[in-house]
């Protein structure tokens, strides 16, 4: 059973991302266009579950399944699309997860959504603080129920995503043009 653990930001998370991204780059090779650190561990100061979320963007999503065995050598479990069409999802660590890998093909709309969410928090510390408080509250209320924790965040996450996408589409960040 997965426990709900929300912890303060750890300055080692960017380094853990870099190490794992290098390993993924070696496996995926020329299929990889970019590899992004996403999710709460990618935002300095944000409380998070201590799971590094990584998003490689690739040329052809249909070629990714051929790397499943190589991913297994790194300790990943291949989960296919895992309820999100056009994604390949891998997780590492079983019930004590350390990493999630969300692979998308260039042009997939989920890429912009993930990056906008991350960058919105990086530039809106007040919103990040509110989100941290929500996660801490939900973790305290549902320490043994990951589904309830996730469901408790759902409405807020969707609202933040909408605000983040509008913010990016208005050109709040020069690099946001590449998201969509």
Automatic annotation (TrEMBL):
SUPFAM superfamilies the UniProt entry points to: Nucleotidyltransferase
UniProt keyword Transferase, yes or no: yes
Keywords, sorted A to Z: Transferase
Ubl conjugation as UniProt keyword: no
InterPro entries reported in the protein's UniProt record: GrpB/CoaE (IPR007344), NT_sf (IPR043519)
Cited Pfam families: GrpB
Entry's Gene Ontology molecular function annotations: transferase activity
PANTHER family xrefs: GRPB DOMAIN PROTEIN (AFU_ORTHOLOGUE AFUA_1G01530), GRPB FAMILY PROTEIN
Protein name as catalogued: GrpB domain, predicted nucleotidyltransferase, UPF0157 family
Organism name: Lentibacillus halodurans
